[in-house]
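Lecture notes, unit on binding sites. The following record was shown on slide 14. It pairs a sequence with adenosine-5'-triphosphate.
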Amino acid sequence: MKARIVTLPGDGVGPEVTAAAVAVLQALAGHYGHEFSFDEQLIGGCAIDATGEPLPAATLAACQQADAVLLGAVGGPKWSDPNAPVRPEQGLLGLRAALGVYANLRPLQVHPALADLSPLKNERLQGVDVLFVRELTGGAYFGAKTRTDDTATDECKYTVAEVERVARRAFALARGRRKQLTSVDKANVLETSRLWRSTVQRIATEFPDVKVEHQLVDSMAMLLLSQPSRYDVVVTENLFGDILTDEAAALAGSLGLLPSASLGESRVGLYEPIHGSAPDIAGKGVANPVGTILSAALLLRHSLQLEAEAVAIEAAIDRVLNDGPHSRDIGGQAGTQDVLDAVLQALDGYA
Ligand code: ATP
Ligand code: MG
């Protein structure tokens, strides 16, 4: 198949990890006879430096016409002055809003070879395989904000339609997995959570084969650490999702390992590793490319419907995490290129 992929390497380690993921996609296209074209565009700090804007119009236009967008990371100390007129992060928030990607998917698995890096004991980590679905374009992040000298407010608002679409997406994903959905809210206190819960409950009737449970966010924070292997798909609102997914990421051992996909109604998905621009290691060739390479696998699965190709990448990564080489963040000595070479070699066996 033919596909147009826009790459947004961004700042810090972004270009290093994006280049690795592109190399994997190119190798895969060769194996399977696909024609992928790559169109590199500016976003974040490097875009501010070049154009004065964190999300140049040319970047947005290219993304809107693409089949999928692969992003590295944005931001860094050079652009972190809070009083600056434009900031790199505005580029990413603006892109998410413009693409309407309301569902943020973050799969979490704990690789047995890396269990020592996790704060939890081995037996609790066995079989952990959770898919978080975080609502990404509503709630407190987008509500009205007010501020006087001694009072501040952040409005948290959800409509039934906003909850329905993310709930349907989560149920559909659960249907393709172990058919269990956990919906997380704070329905004992918050009105938005009561609307969330009743809406999820109603959508559940469309998916009678999926088992639903509701958890309060405070208990869920605890259960994720005490019984992480109990969960299949977890759906929650924007703020709770932000916090719970970072908590869950700690279980995997390194930020450098985890991918994400942000999806909306249109076909264009946005794929990026969960880590930031890691300015402390940028330009040194030591960043772990695994989170970005796994994001490329999600791109193949969710935007291009190339499931076998996605599985081939995941199998190659699994092999490399098992046999090495390992980058520094997971206790090894390997650089980005060493890990990439090993993934490409493993891919030969799976693709
Ligand atoms: P942001 O504010 O952009 O989300 P952050 O504050 O969460 O960024 P990161 O940039 O993700 O921070 O970096 C946090 C730590 O994790 C740093 O020490 C960084 O070097 C390390 N780190 C992040 N990504 C990687 C990676 N791909 N490989 C190795 N180490 C990484
Ligand atoms: Mg962060």
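Take-home: The chain has a mean pLDDT of 95.
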